[in-house]
Amino acid sequence: MRTDPPSLLSLAIDSALLHISSYSDLSFLPEHILEDLFLRTLRAGKLNEKILKLFIATGKEEILSLIGAFNIQCVLTPVLPTISVRDDEVDIVIAAIEPDLTSFLEEWRAVFSRFHLIIIKDPDIKGELKIPGGFNYDTYTKADIQQIIGPSNAATFSGYSCRYFGYLLSKKKYIISIDDDCIPAKDTKGIQVDAIAQHINNLLTPATPFFFNTLYDPFCKGADFVRGYPFSLRNGVSCALSCGLWLNLADLDAPTQALKPELRNTRYVDAVLTVPARAMMPMSGINIAFDRELVGPALLPSFKLAKEGKFRWETVEDVWTGMCVKVVCDHLGYGVKTGLPYVWRKERGNAIESLKKEWEGVKLMEEVVPFFQSMKLTPAAKTAEDCVIEIAAAVKEQLGRIDPVFTRAADSMVEWVQLWKTVKTRT
Amino acid sequence: MRTDPPSLLSLAIDSALLHISSYSDLSFLPEHILEDLFLRTLRAGKLNEKILKLFIATGKEEILSLIGAFNIQCVLTPVLPTISVRDDEVDIVIAAIEPDLTSFLEEWRAVFSRFHLIIIKDPDIKGELKIPGGFNYDTYTKADIQQIIGPSNAATFSGYSCRYFGYLLSKKKYIISIDDDCIPAKDTKGIQVDAIAQHINNLLTPATPFFFNTLYDPFCKGADFVRGYPFSLRNGVSCALSCGLWLNLADLDAPTQALKPELRNTRYVDAVLTVPARAMMPMSGINIAFDRELVGPALLPSFKLAKEGKFRWETVEDVWTGMCVKVVCDHLGYGVKTGLPYVWRKERGNAIESLKKEWEGVKLMEEVVPFFQSMKLTPAAKTAEDCVIEIAAAVKEQLGRIDPVFTRAADSMVEWVQLWKTVKTRT
């Protein structure tokens, strides 16, 4: 149609499209012209509530069937949503494992400085926090933690887990957390990635957990749903968690890292995808974002290994937490995305030294994964808090007899939910 | 350890590693030296059956626990598998929707010419097949189809479905099929992709459907399993189906294509991933490969729309077939991969013209997807043939009352399995 010289009819439809907002009745148009006008209106991005009602008012069957098949629904705003979030809806939570955050924050200045930071100092470390000027932040130390949760429980927030104290205190809708040994990554064109913008985009666009789109995120610019994707599922669901990835030093366990000390992740996979419902994945806490209002209480510090250390490969708390969140999302009908954004992870630590500590985590995963894979919540669990309490009960009952670490985790999940509720009531 | 000047002990271990294959006993070594030697042997890729047995024979607990945790098992060949397939284990099946295959085959010459081609001429088209010289191929026409399956059923193999006749006649382990409107794609560096090599690699390396690896295919060069991935699942399972993707004209349905006539897929996502168990996806028949011995009978022509045409967006037979295969793979414990390789899809047809035909397919998907998502096979189904028969019975019972197209599909699935068995017995 586009390559032929335009017909008079086509020019007339163009003109109608130009003035579409000034019409109050379209029912006089023949059906085939109406159909053409409708498709052109859609393509031009001009279909809003008023114009949709005009087309519906014609009562023409072909038009109604088009509207049904595209699953176009009456809304008060234009049909294409605009993606935006106010800067004050976001907290960036940083766990300070080392007291000097100068070089870390300088690397991230362009990306972080618009947002409010919550910086939690690992209660185990000594020395004053060093934070360069020009950031909007609050810091919390061991004393603050003890004041809120009592001195005996401060250890819950040691090491990587100190960030959870920030999750607890945040009042924002969105929380983003990036490890302090990561700097911004560059994409395949060498352009620095804005990890915050990508995370926010992941959280604001729908997730599609109920059918796998082979072309990855259909809400990505230039992408769409593949042939065969049911139209009824194309609205998607709210995305509650966005898991980013890592270039350079990948998030491997200590044995793998020890076995392949030269291995670096250099593959930049330009994709975001929804992890399908009921599929479990190993979430890493290195580079994540989540909707605190939807699943905040499920991002919890509860799975502490006896010999947990200050290297990621010595911990599995985030992997446990990720499976909690995934089960909660599957139950409540939210989505989890993984993929972009990448961060660049710098070298830290000697994996061979960590090998002995890590075996416990590696062995426990053999029990943890099947447990979460078979976990079914009851219809009574209607909030993230409810879900966590149900999961904790199942952990205690099914895993508690295997290892005391699970009983402690279950108790700590229940305590966390109580703490979450107390803090929310207080503020 | 690497940056310090080497200790005498370290040099001694280096020397032991150099001569590791000449030792017949290692049990005299202290445990910490043995552990170091074991890790260095692994890293050097020197761990073979004989050396593994040497280490096991020491009986040292730390070594046995390392072997257990890495899930290293005794095999007869070196521990790292080498990926290769003989050229005569592969058939490339081409459905000739247009009789002149000259430009198509010339584009693919470098990639296809090593392999045997099975070319099936769409029984609906007229004119002699045109095939350039230098290829090793067999062609089949309407007369051949009628001879094998009888004249009344030849319509089953019309249009895109004619390729299934090639699947039926192939005796090779691996089948690869690419639509005749596709040419080789280029990767982000501008290098032409060898789609056959990538498909074969996807089929020969394990799939990991039971836990999602966030760094995509762990068997890809430079990749591995992410922290938290259970070691017991790292062996993976056999990959039965490899679904490739499309650059330029993506595989969209007619409404989407009509609505976004300018949309082209330009995003080259450099990744292969296993579709998790129990997640369904819309397989496209444009660019696929499969292991015929594992799932051949499940790749079947059965879901024909009344107004099915000669454009992909006018069909859903492959989407249906893909869900059959996925259910079969989930039941029999095989994996399905999606992602690389891409092909470049050329323009063909006018989507707006196809809109009227496509509505039926779009509407039926709303019934088809939930059906396959909830499909559970019984333990009695032990082969792909058994599985297809069970699925056909469920289709008839659960979907048959909704639309006669489903009853026809169920009948045709049963006929296909009979045909498959007959042809296999005969040859």
TrEMBL record, chains A, B:
Transcription regulation among keywords: no
Subcellular location per the Swiss-Prot or TrEMBL entry: Golgi apparatus
InterPro entries named in the record: RGP_fam
Assigned keywords, A-Z: Cell wall biogenesis/degradation, Golgi apparatus
PANTHER family assigned to the protein according to its UniProt record, in alphabetical order: UDP-ARABINOPYRANOSE MUTASE 5-RELATED, UDP-ARABINOSE MUTASE
Similarity comment: Belongs to the RGP family.
Protein name in UniProt: Probable UDP-arabinopyranose mutase 5 isoform X3
